[in-house]
Design a protein that fits this description.
single chain, mainly beta, Immunoglobulin-like, 7-stranded mixed β-sheet, 35 strands, 13% helix, binds CU-O-CU linkage, binds copper (II) ion
């Protein structure tokens, strides 16, 4: 059965099952993603349907405050992070068992604290594992030596601790931290373990001053995660081996662990700092109002601010990636909410289930697209956050034309290193045919080397968000990009808006080749061993990950 047949059948089933908010939004995915072919009316209709589906989004968005969940804390003041079980009322009125990073500091309690640091700060923190399984914290996007990077080769067993000590050397940006133990990263992250790590510098502070931004008030982190719940409010994560081949897709898209969230905003510029913290779901983000997409400004990516703002009206966001955007609500109309949404797109699970060794029934009956627990498909148009705009005014600030100085991409040295993403016909995803092996380091680079890598995703594949530890990189070129993505290209090299910044994660679509430039210069002595992997967390857990060495 073709991908399209499966999609259509699924949508119809949902539709016949009663047009609730979900069913209605489900229709939106039938709108063509490429509007160059007379689909503008259909797109407007789909947008309106998504907006209507946000009518019952009334739960106040959880924001980082002075304590509690997401509470803001100086990274230099954190002494101990306890990894433990807790409860959170994620669905209103229902306490759900969750796992969280718990911190006590100055008589205040924090869960998944939002850590803030400045370049040059020293972080000294002990992780205490209070789970009944091994875990480790990985500081995603921060350049650390391998011991402080935190990966499955350095786990803490139950009731053991692990000490980190590192200098924050990174560009100002929003990074994040999450578990990274071998084969159980996906369930641990899904159960709630994830937090944000902000780095500031002079450029960053200049921007906040210019626009009058305040973290948690007018500068809003948005952690997007899809999860499924049973009727008692317990998280469902029952992903059999064959469903891991696609990844987990949950029914509810939570923002900052708020279900059906709403946020009241003034008519001014807001800064949204988006993290795709989902296990496997890609988002095609847009701000909708009255069936049209509002323009917004992309100002930064994984590795910090761009040179200058870039106006766009949509952007794909793949697992682990961040987008830093400005939305000027003076451009919005009054009396009608603005809805942050994910628009429908073809998820391109083109893996050809029949030849993968994945039992046909499992593949066709929702092993992947629907999630195991009947979760919503990848690529389905859905509302994410409702923004109610208050009729206030008096804000007269303007977006600065210059944001930062982004270093030029490192010059390409020699022939690119080919990295081929494929499946092995037995239900495994591979990188150059490799699967993760504890004692293997199949790829080695020289410290200080400048390399280009050509990441080639095969045609019979899925989108793979590829992440490298230890370094940020630049995208040089995309080829073979599917039409629904290519329309967002900004130049003859096919670069997407976020490809213009520093990245630690890049999405390669089926049939696409992405050429990236890396500079393996870092200050850490001796040999270092890092991970390079797919950040579809189920793929990572299945072994779509390799260790690579940086040698003197
Ligand atoms: Cu965010 Cu290796 O991971
Ligand atoms: Cu990482
Ligand atoms: Cu993958």
């Amino acid at each position: 059965m073709s991908n399209r047949d499966r999609m259509t059948r699924f949508t119809r089933r949902r539709f016949l099952g009663g047009v609730g908010a979900l069913g209605l939004a489900g229709l939106a995915r039938l709108a063509p993603a490429d509007e160059g072919h007379g689909g503008a009316r259909a797109a407007a209709k789909a947008a309106l349907e998504i907006e209507q589906a946000a009518a019952d989004f009334v739960n106040p968005l959880r924001l980082p405050g002075a304590s509690g969940l997401w509470g803001v804390l100086k990274a230099t003041e954190v002494r101990e992070i306890r990894v433990r079980r807790t409860e959170l009322a994620v669905l209103p009125g229902l306490a759900s068992p969750f796992w969280a990073y718990a911190v006590e500091s100055g008589a205040k309690r924090f869960l998944n604290p939002t850590l803030v640091a400045r370049r040059g700060d020293e972080v000294r923190v002990r992780m205490a594992n209070e789970l009944d399984q091994p875990t480790i914290i990985h500081w995603h996007g921060l350049a650390n030596d391998d011991r402080n990077d935190g990966t499955g080769i350095y786990v803490a067993a139950p009731s053991e601790t692990y000490d980190y000590g590192f200098t924050v050397r990174d560009r100002a940006s929003m990074y994040w931290y999450h578990p990274h133990p071998l084969h159980i990263t996906a369930p641990q992250t899904y159960r709630g373990l994830a937090g944000l790590f902000f780095v500031a510098d002079d450029d960053e502070e200049a921007l906040r001053r210019a626009l009058g931004l305040e973290l948690g008030v007018t500068e809003i982190p948005l952690v997007l995660q899809d999860k499924s719940f049973d009727h008692e409010g317990r998280l469902e994560y029952d992903v059999p081996r064959e469903a891991m081949f696609h990844g987990f897709f949950g029914e509810e898209i939570l923002v900052n662990l708020t279900a059906r969230p709403a946020f009241t905003a003034a008519r001014r510029i807001y800064r949204f700092r988006l993290l795709n913290g989902s296990n496997a779901r890609n988002y095609r983000l847009a701000f909708l109002q009255g069936g049209r997409r509002l323009g917004f400004y992309l100002i930064g990516t994984d590795g910090g601010l761009l040179d200058a703002p870039k106006r766009v009206d949509q952007a794909f966001l793949t697992p682990a990636q961040r987008l830093d955007v400005l939305l000027d609500l003076r451009e919005a109309r009054e009396g009608r909410p603005v809805v942050l949404a994910t628009l429908g797109f073809d998820p391109m699970h083109n893996e050809g289930a029949m030849e993968t060794g994945v039992p046909k029934a499992a593949a066709a009956s929702g092993g992947g697209h629907e999630g195991h627990a009947g979760g919503a498909m990848d690529g389905e148009g859905k509302p994410i956050l409702r923004i109610d705009v208050e009729p206030t005014s008096g804000y007269a600030k303007k977006i600065p034309a210059k944001l930062s100085r982004l270093p030029a991409p490192p010059p390409a040295g020699g022939k690119p290193r080919r990295i081929v993403l494929a499946h092995d016909g037995k239900g495994n995803w591979t990188i150059n045919g490799w699967q993760f092996e504890m004692n293997a380091t199949p790829l080695t680079v020289r410290r200080g080397a400048r390399e280009t890598w050509l990441i080639e995703n095969s045609r019979a594949s899925m989108p793979h968000p590829m992440h490298i530890h230890g370094f940020q990189f630049r995208v040089l070129e995309r080829r073979g990009t599917p039409a629904q993505v290519r329309v967002l290209g900004t130049d003859s090299n096919g670069l997407l808006p976020q490809d213009r910044g520093l990245l630690d994660t890049v999405l390669a679509w089926p049939g696409e080749s992405v050429r990236i430039a890396l500079d393996f210069t870092h200050p850490f002595p001796g040999d270092q061993t890092y991970m390079f992997h797919c950040h579809n967390l189920e793929h990572e857990d299945l072994g779509m990950m390799i260790q690579y060495g940086v040698k003197a």
